[in-house]
Design a protein that fits this description.
single chain, 205 residues, alpha/beta
Length: 205
């Protein structure tokens, strides 16, 4: 099985930009957010159960998950978030394992597994051989999310409060990617880590 590097960071930290840079080096990327979106799209495997548990009011007209409605619902009632996670998380893990097996057949140098909630999930921490954290100040995260999503500052702060703290993420990091300086500053950091992970994967055999 391939060498797995877990990539994480808080909302707005720049995980997607970093993942894209790793992909540009020819490294396969599996993103649990992308998997979750597929599961909750129209016809997605999670939608029958979500409809059953949460009702039609949490679906769009096309039958996909209404993300804005669900976000408001689970933040208002934290117990509901656990009900949603109980539906989604097993399906996400199953699909991630399938993707790992498929990509491993091509014998890649290593695989990047993007998990926003890696710190909160012992399952994923134990699954990867190394953890890379994309880091920037919280104020910068808030500004970036507001700019890209149009969410109010209070909504972004509420999302941040539901995630692991910056200190907790840095506490589990094997490698830290600083994203205070934009793409130009990210590229050399990713290039360095790409060579490092290739070497570690060869050593792991």
């Amino acid at each position: 099985m391939s060498y797995l590097v877990g990539l994480t960071g808080g909302i707005g930290s720049g995980k997607s930009a970093v993942a894209n840079l790793f992909a540009a080096h020819g490294v396969p990327v599996i993103d649990t957010d992308v998997v979750a979106h597929a599961l909750t799209a129209t016809g997605g495997m999670a939608m029958p159960k979500i409809r059953e548990v949460f009702g039609e009011q949490m679906l769009t007209q096309e039958g996909a998950l209404d993300r804005a409605a669900m976000r408001a619902h689970v933040f208002a009632q934290p117990a509901e978030r656990k009900r949603l996670e109980a539906i989604l998380h097993p399906l996400i893990r199953e699909e991630v394992e399938r993707c790992i097996q498929t990509k491993s057949l091509r014998e890649p140098p290593y695989i990047i597994l993007v998990v926003p909630l890696l710190v909160e999930s012992a399952d994923y921490q134990h699954r990867v051989q190394r953890i890379a954290v994309v880091d920037c100040p919280e104020a910068m995260q808030i500004q970036r999310v507001m700019a890209r999503s149009g969410l109010a500052q209070t909504e972004v702060e509420r999302i941040l409060q539901a995630q692991a703290t910056r200190e907790a993420r840095l506490g589990v990091a094997d490698d830290v990617i600083n994203n205070e300086g934009g793409i130009a500053a990210l590229a050399p950091q990713v290039a360095f880590l790409d060579q490092k992970y290739r070497h570690l994967a060869r050593q792991a055999g």
